[in-house]
């Protein structure tokens, strides 16, 4: 029997994404990643400026139907209910 001190150590490549070895994984250009991130952030900030949080009616027909329905304390009720 061999003692654990004298056991032969076999170097195996460390596994990365999806079980592939690190050396197989393509190198990613960090400068390109930073540039893409910067573009994405600018696009996000531009879209953020055009956001509208005010209430707007999207469907006039739904608005008209809701206005004509009977309400009690702001909630719709059936026309036959007496509260």
TrEMBL record:
This protein's UniProt keywords: Nucleus, Repeat
Pfam families: CCT
Gene Ontology cellular component list: nucleus
Domain CCT as annotated: residue spans: 37-79
Subcellular location: Nucleus
Main localisation: nucleus
Matches recorded under PANTHER family: ZINC FINGER PROTEIN CONSTANS-LIKE 10, ZINC FINGER PROTEIN CONSTANS-LIKE 14-RELATED
Record's protein name: CCT domain-containing protein
Organism of provenance: Hevea brasiliensis
């Amino acid at each position: 029997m061999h003692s654990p001190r004298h056991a032969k150590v076999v170097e195996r490549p460390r596994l990365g994404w999806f079980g592939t070895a690190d050396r197989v994984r393509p190198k990613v250009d960090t400068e390109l990643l930073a540039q893409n991130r910067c573009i994405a952030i600018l696009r996000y900030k531009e879209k953020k400026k055009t956001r509208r949080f005010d209430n707007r009616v999207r469907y006039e027909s739904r608005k008209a139907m809701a206005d004509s329905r009977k309400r009690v304390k702001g909630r719709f009720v059936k026309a036959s209910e007496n509260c």
